[in-house]
Amino acid sequence: MINVLECRPVQILLVEDTPTDARLTLEAFKRAKVANQLSVVENGLEALKFLRQQGKYANVIRPDLLLLDLKLPVMDGHELLAAIKADEELKSIAVVVLTASLADADVVRSYNLYASCYITKPSNFTDFVKVVSQIESFWSSVAVLPSHLPPSGPTEE
User: Fold this and answer.
1) pTM for this structure?
2) In the 8-state DSSP scheme, what is residue 142?
3) What residue segments make up the domains of the chain, in order of their start?
């Protein structure tokens, strides 16, 4: 059986409007020695343009995984999640909600909109690095993403 995950690194899009949180996430990925490609946009509308490869994002590689904050300007995380899951071209992208919100309503709404999982951001950097490392490990080593399947589909032994 071939290891479809060896095809290429996981392309990750971080949707985060707080510069400090974006820097912390980038630093956490660096410290966790994550080899995947990470891009960052600041709001839901920019994320949608990125995903649809529109305008200045025309030549980007569509991400395999989205790390999504919920509290965003212009288009919030739930609105973006709804738009992604309603779009035939985008709905198979894995979306990890990575947010500070512990509100039951946010958790339930995220899963009702087909989020792949919901993770609250740890308050200290050491724990944040551990969480990022676990996210990376799961999505690049354990989970099989649709974009990593061979064109003819998976092979069986």
Assistant:
1) 0.86
2) I
3) 8-144
